[in-house]
C-alpha cells in the first residue's frame, strides 16, 4: 500500500516540473514595466500678481529763474526709490523638450519717487524743491527660457510705458505754491528671472527688470508770481520683484 502511495506522489511531482519551469520562463521573458513619471509642461496661459521695489538716478535739466522765485540750475541729479505692486498675464509654449517661448504683459501701481532741493549761486538751498515720481508703469515682453523640469530660468525684453509726474513746491513771501506736470511716455525694458512650479497649477517667480522710459518734458507755474519753470527729466529705473502665478 505504501509503495502505491509513494509512486503516485512521484508521478505528481514529475508532472508539476514542466509547469513550474514554464512559469519561471514567463517571469523572465515578460518583466513588469514601471509606470513612467509625467514630466511637467510649462505650456499654457497664466495669471498672477507681484510686489517689488525699484528706483534709479534720474537727471533733471533746464529749470530757469524768473524774478528770483525759481533758482537756476542747468542739471541736477537725484535718487528715486519706492515700492510697487501689480499683476501679470501671459502664455508659454514649450517645445524641443526644454525650450520655453512666451509673452507676458504686466501693470504696476508705483510709489517710486525722488526729490531734489536746488541751490542758489551762494551754494545754499533755494526756495524751490521738486522731484519726479512714477505713478504707474507696465511692460509688454517676450520671454525665452530653458525648462529644467519644474524650474524655468529665462531672459525677457520688450516695450515699456509709464506715467511720470514732476511736482514742485515754491516757498515765497506770499505763501507756498504747489504745482505739477505729468506725461505718459514709452520706452523699453530688458531683464531676467526664474520661475518654479510648486504644483501643477501654482508657480512662484523672482525677476529683475531695467526699465527706460526716456525723457519727458515738464512745465510748472508759480501762480502767485506768474513765473514758470520748464525742462526735462529722464526716467530710468531698476526693479526687483517677486510674484505668484496660476497656470491654467
Structure write-up:
There is one protein chain. Helices cover 11% and strands 66% of the residues. It is built from 1 helix and 11 strands. The N and C termini lie far apart (79 Å).
Number of helices: 1
The mean pLDDT is 79
| Widest β-sheet, arrangement of strands | 1-4-5-7-8-9-10-11
How many strands? 11
* Model regions low in confidence, pLDDT < 50 over at least 5 residues: 11-17, 119-125
Coarse shape: elongated
Spell out the helices and strands N to C. Answer: HEEEEEEEEEEE
Largest sheet: 8 strands, antiparallel, barrel
Radius of gyration: 35 Å
Task: Determine the structural class based on helices, strands and strand pairing.
Answer: mainly beta
Query: How far apart, in Å, are the first and last alpha carbons?
Result: 79 Å
Determine the strand fraction and express it as a percent band: over 45%
Helix share, percent: 10-25%
Q: What oligomeric assembly is this protein in?
A: single chain
Which SSEs are present, and which pair or pack?
Blueprint: H1 2-29, E1 44-56, E2 59-61, E3 75-77, E4 80-95, E5 99-114, E6 116-119, E7 125-146, E8 151-172, E9 175-197, E10 202-222, E11 227-247
Antiparallel strand pairs: 1-4, 1-11, 2-3, 2-11, 4-5, 5-7, 6-7, 7-8, 8-9, 9-10, 10-11
Amino acid at each position: 500500500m505504501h509503495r502505491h502511495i509513494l509512486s503516485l506522489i512521484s508521478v505528481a511531482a514529475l508532472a508539476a516540473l514542466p509547469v513550474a519551469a514554464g512559469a519561471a520562463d514567463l517571469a523572465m521573458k515578460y518583466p513588469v514595466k514601471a509606470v513612467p513619471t509625467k514630466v511637467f509642461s510649462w505650456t499654457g496661459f497664466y495669471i498672477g500678481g507681484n510686489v517689488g521695489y525699484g528706483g534709479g538716478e534720474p537727471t533733471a535739466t533746464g529749470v530757469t529763474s524768473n524774478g528770483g522765485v525759481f533758482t537756476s540750475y542747468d542739471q541736477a541729479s537725484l535718487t528715486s526709490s519706492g515700492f510697487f505692486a501689480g499683476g501679470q498675464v501671459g502664455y508659454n509654449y514649450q517645445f524641443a523638450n526644454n525650450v520655453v517661448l512666451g509673452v507676458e504683459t504686466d501693470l504696476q501701481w508705483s510709489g517710486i519717487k525722488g526729490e531734489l532741493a536746488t541751490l542758489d549761486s551762494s551754494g545754499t538751498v533755494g526756495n524751490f524743491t521738486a522731484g519726479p515720481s512714477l505713478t504707474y508703469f507696465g511692460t509688454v515682453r517676450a520671454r525665452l527660457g530653458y525648462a529644467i523640469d519644474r524650474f524655468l530660468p529665462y531672459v525677457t525684453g520688450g516695450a515699456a510705458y509709464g506715467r511720470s509726474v514732476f511736482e514742485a513746491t515754491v516757498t515765497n513771501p506770499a505763501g507756498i505754491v504747489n504745482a505739477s506736470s505729468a506725461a505718459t511716455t514709452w520706452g523699453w525694458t530688458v531683464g531676467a528671472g526664474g520661475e518654479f512650479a510648486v504644483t501643477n497649477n501654482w508657480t512662484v517667480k523672482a525677476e529683475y527688470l531695467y526699465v527706460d522710459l526716456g525723457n519727458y518734458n515738464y512745465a510748472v507755474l508759480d501762480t502767485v508770481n506768474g513765473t514758470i519753470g520748464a525742462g526735462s527729466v529722464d526716467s530710468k529705473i531698476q526693479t526687483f520683484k517677486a510674484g505668484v502665478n496660476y497656470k491654467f
